[in-house]
TrEMBL record:
SUPFAM superfamilies: Homeodomain-like, Tetracyclin repressor-like, C-terminal domain. Residues 35-54 bind DNA. Residues 12-72 form the HTH tetR-type domain. Gene3D superfamilies: Tetracycline Repressor, domain 2. This is TetR family transcriptional regulator. It comes from the Bacteria. One of its GO terms (molecular function) is transcription cis-regulatory region binding. It comes from Caulobacter henricii. Keywords: DNA-binding, Repressor, Transcription, Transcription regulation.
Length: 202
């Protein structure tokens, strides 16, 4: 029997499986427990295969951090698209999407915390963090400006990003303190303070 050729699709599938496994193991065991053996066991591949696709565990972790950021971006953009054409509705959808699945997820939080632990000690992760949050703030600035060109979109985006992050973190850690709806209401109230006009209060 002739063995099927090794295809690009198979390679991509295995690479993605390793990235997903790295996220799962990081969320479960943290950076200290995320060994090559544990990750490959989670992915269902031999330990030697990791080196075939990545220049070590650090490169795999970086790919996983990028992948998680892209997944969050996709979820936020999907929420904006579903909100319709009204600028205010699109802005609200972007802000409150972080308080709903798939962004509001305990495993995603655990993996994100593992990535954050590497940001201050590793330049590669610091760069990913910088680019990820810059993209988030830029998108938020665009949505803010579409609602009210007179608002200070840059400062509003910085403040609201910090607020959303904090609310998301607390919701994932202890959802008994407040509800996702209340988190959204808090973000909306703070949003109103950045506009010199009542456009953010509708």
């Amino acid at each position: 029997m002739t063995r099927a050729p090794f295809t690009r699709e198979t390679a991509d599938t295995r690479r993605q499986a390793l990235v997903a496994a790295a996220e799962t193991v990081l969320a479960r065991d943290g950076v200290a427990g995320a060994s090559v053996r544990a990750i490959c066991a989670e992915a269902g591949v031999s330990p030697g295969l990791l080196r075939h696709y990545f220049d070590g565990v650090e490169a795999l972790f970086a790919a996983a951090y990028e992948a998680v950021g892209q997944r969050i971006d996709a979820a936020l953009e999907a929420a904006v698209a579903q909100a319709g054409p009204a600028p205010r509705a699109r802005l609200s959808a972007f802000l409150t999407a972080s308080f709903k699945p798939p962004v509001l997820d305990e495993q995603l939080l655990a993996a994100w915390l593992a990535f954050w632990s590497l940001v201050k000690v590793n330049a590669v992760f610091a760069d990913i963090h910088r680019r990820t949050y810059a993209g988030y703030r830029a998108r938020l600035e665009d949505l803010l400006a579409a609602c009210d060109p007179s608002a200070d979109a840059r400062l509003a985006a910085i403040g609201l990003t910090a607020v959303v992050d904090g609310l998301w973190l607390e919701l994932c850690l202890d959802p008994t303190v407040f509800t996702p709806a209340e988190a959204g209401a808090i973000a909306e109230r703070l949003l109103a303070g950045y506009s010199p006009t009542p456009v953010f209060l509708d």
